[in-house]
Specification:
Elements (H helix, E strand, L loop, with lengths): L7 E10 L2 E11 L4 E5 L6 H8 L7 E6 L9 H4 L2 E4 L11 H9 L8 H7 L15 H13 L5 E5 L7 H16 L3 E5 L3 H7 L2 E6 L2 E6 L12 E5 L2 E5 L2 H11 L8 E3 L3 H9 L2
Parallel strand pairs: 3-7, 3-8, 5-6, 6-7
Antiparallel strand pairs: 1-2, 1-4, 8-9, 10-11, 10-12
The structure holds adenosine-5'-triphosphate.
Length: about 280
């Protein structure tokens, strides 16, 4: 385990909007280099929490440290070390993709190569197209390009693949893995459980402004200890030892077991169980 201080450290975070307690005594640690996915139903408090960490919203209580500083007071040098994938770049409709990414690169002390970033998000055929002519999914890729152009140490990705076609989602996942391999810490908010499972080292489930569970995708909610459901043409059984059952079935049928399936609870199954408790 790393002994470096965590890139994100939150203690007893509280945020209220009038009578609504959007964030209710939330604790969170994200170590350097981790991909952490925040899951939770609409209105759970994910955006509020993320925006406090990004320095865009004030908190009502608690301690927050991001890259060692309080985001409520941190300045430009701190901001250059984080990357944020903001929703939509409509304000720049008349610029081309290449111009816009180049424009953002100049804000940062250590920008990535503009052409490499455009390639990485799969927008090379659109380099000379105006932003207003891009499709919804292409705009989202552009948002991602703007979030990573400054070589951030910590990247916030808020529902990054909404509107992506399946192929674009896969290539985005590859990009996130590459960023992680380079050591970028990533806080990802997503409603796609498969995305969390593919990308996250750990997932946290927020419900009612509280973090109700934190674990690896494989272990969340005791998923790895739950029984498997073995289904075949003539029956089904819940068992902690599916291999033994399949061996017995194989003997019974003297070979191929008709329509055999071994099913385990998906991340979505355990997640839905948690937020409905
Ligand atoms: N500016 C605001 N003024 C008043 N209430 C707000 C404001 N922003 C958020 N809320 C309320 O705070 C709660 C948490 O909202 P938040 O946007 O953080 O949820 P979320 O988990 O990001 O949801 P979603 O998945 O829909 O994006 C909700 O009840 C929401 O209505």
């Amino acid at each position: 385990m790393s002994t470096d201080p965590p890139h994100i450290r939150v203690r007893s975070l509280v945020k209220e909007y009038g009578a609504v307690r959007a964030v209710d005594d939330l604790d969170l640690d994200v170590p350097a280099g981790e991909v952490f996915a925040l899951l939770g139903p609409n209105g759970a408090g994910k955006t509020t929490t993320t925006e406090i960490l990004e320095g865009f919203r004030e908190r009502d209580g608690g301690e927050v440290s991001v890259l060692g500083e309080d985001p409520g007071r941190a300045g430009r040098a701190w901001r250059a070390r984080i990357g944020i994938v903001l929703q939509s770049s409509d304000d720049y409709a008349e610029l081309t993709v290449g111009e816009l990414v180049g424009h953002f690169a100049r804000y940062y002390p250590r920008p990535r190569d503009v052409d490499e970033v455009i390639d990485a998000v799969g927008l090379e055929p659109k380099r000379n197209s105006r932003v207003r002519s891009l499709s919804g999914g292409q705009r989202r890729r552009l948002d991602v390009a703007l979030g990573i152009i400054g070589t951030p140490e910590l990247l916030f990705l808020d529902e990054p693949t909404t509107g992506f076609d399946p192929q674009a989602r896969r290539s985005f996942w590859e990009l996130v893995r590459r960023l992680r391999d380079e050591g970028t810490t990533i806080l990802l908010t997503t409603h796609y459980l498969d995305e969390a499972e593919q990308l996250a080292d750990r997932v946290g489930v927020i419900a009612g402004g509280r973090l109700v569970a934190v674990d690896t995708p494989a272990r969340l909610g005791g998923r790895h200890e739950q029984r498997a459901r073995v289904v075949w043409r003539d029956g089904e059984e819940l068992t902690p030892a599916p291999t033994a059952l399949v061996a017995a079935l194989s003997e019974r049928y003297a070979g191929e077991v008709p329509d055999l399936q071994v099913l385990r609870p998906t991340l979505e199954d355990v997640y839905l169980g948690m937020i409905h408790e």
